[in-house]
Amino acid sequence: MKNIFLMVALVAAGSWSTAQELYGEATYFSKGSIDKSFLEGNRDITPDQRKRIEDNLKKASEKTFILKFNRNESIWQQEVALAAPGQGGGWGNFMGSSMGGDKYKNITTNTFTEQRDMMGKTFLIKDDLPQLDWQITGESRKIGNYTAVKATAVKKNDDLDMSAFRRRRDEDTKKKEEDGTMKLTDMFEKDDTTTVTAWFTPEIPVQHGPAEYGGLPGLILELNTNGTTMLCTKIVLNPEKRDKIQAETKGEEIKLEEYNATFTKKMEEMSERFRGGRGGRGRN
């Protein structure tokens, strides 16, 4: 079954290559699971406050992205709505700019480039694309007008992949929270690996997909990992107007692992200052 779908993909790729230079734009709706455990049992939060918090968490977990691609390159960009007056700054803005910007991928060189801002400094992450050992199952279904084939892989979680973290609920964590000695790293635990499920279509024979994913014989239309689903809701192929696909060039070049370590250190420093500003609550 696996070889059949690979053959279909190769045949489709051959027919496309003789027809025209492929360019496409795919729109994805991303939705992540929400951990509301910190709201449970909190008597300081009124029902109205809880509803507002839950609504804000829901909005933060739902995003729209555009994947622009040709045969060998792609760029993954978030569609950002204009913020209402008084919004768009603060912690959410800091996390957004620090955790990810436009992601350029080149499957010929097997590399990606991503610009991120951290505390007023611009970094340019340049690194190799993650290589997943995809297992094509042969299971298929329709997504929109396209036939999609299921594939799975086990992926090592990135150190800053927030969807891989879970809030700790053990007694030791509760004690540290009460006496004011808890560090940011004490609050959460992270799974080392996760299973990724992708649905790709050989009818669009490019090895691209949402975020950092790709490497299958067809465009990934749906991807599920760590409680997050990214679903393609619209595809436009070979429009008259085509945007140029290119990597950002501004910023201090850095590897992903080094950037993650720098970000984690900054977060710990901010956590230390926050605890100090509270006057060491709970200490004698």
TrEMBL record:
Q: What Pfam families does UniProt report for this protein, alphabetically? A: Porph_ging
Q: Which InterPro entries match?
A: GLPGLI
Q: What is this protein called?
A: GLPGLI family protein
